[in-house]
Amino acid sequence: MEEKKTCLYDKHVALGALMSPFAGFIMPIQYSNITDEHQAVRQACGVFDVSHMGEVLITGPDAERYVQHIFTNDVAGAPDGQVFYGMMCYPDGGTVDDLLVYKMGAEEFFLVINAANIDKDVDWMKQQLAGFNVTFEHQSDYYGQLAVQGPEAETVVEEVLELACKDLKFYTATKLNASGETIIISRTGYTGEDGFEIYGSHDFIVQNWDKLMASGRCKPCGLGCRDTLRFEVGLPLYGDELSAEISPVMAGLSMFCKFEKEEFIGKEALAEQKANGVAKRVIGIELQDKAIPRHGYAVLKDGVQVGEVTTGYHCISVDKSVCMALVETPFAKLGTELEIQIRKKTFPGVVVKKRFYDKHYKKD
Question: Which of 16, 85, 253, 341 is deepest in the core (most CB within 10 A)?
């Protein structure tokens, strides 16, 4: 199948980005190098093309009830503009996808889904429509998306893009009229830093990318550092720390499953897992060596495999080799000594918290 291109593809190529297939798209992996781009987001401001993400609009009298049915978090009675993180789950508790739900109005919910899962997610959501008076609009082909991230993001969005954002609270969104169209901007991101995600037409996204590049105040960043940034602060990636086989409870994300809700798909299975435990859990491991654990590498206890790495890096911000791994629950306790098989050698490590670097969100 031919890979798709985002509206910014030509811009990435012109900047000399290293392009590679990702989730059905040809995407920029890096421009200068991953470390430079990573540090730009941690210390100043970086911008990501995330136009490959999927968008679905749910409207109508039963919009809230439908979202409550398919989504693990609780959106009931939330104020307009509130953004929620959570999952869609199968009846057995496995994860369909993790996503953001934007409550834009009493009967209007904007859902942002992972690029690799767009077709699967849309099919799944359509299968759940029976009995709900809603209109379902798949809008992925209309929207482009920019993520402006870092401690200087607010100033850059206000001054360079001239978009009013400073009054947005963490995990809230608003609609703005800009360049003759209605756009959505939210104080959200996938980096552990303050930042904004901006949704608009392809023309709008291209114009604003050009403004950011011309300003010199915002470094273009690829998917390489997007992964190192999210990993350092313990944010999951679907396909690694969440999947049809890895439930939110196994991933340590039960706080986004609101069991007090009357119902949601997967509630019974997840509640049983939370009450009675799971066979495997996603944990953090810190190595005593600079060797780098990669996805799929075996995690051992006394030479016997007890799990495998989901994501691993030599952490840029704290200069340690660390990973997240799915391991058998008896070996998931903090302080447990384990080993990781890297090619023909094993390297000792210890179970630590999954957040290897502190988040710096603006929450006041």
Answer: 253
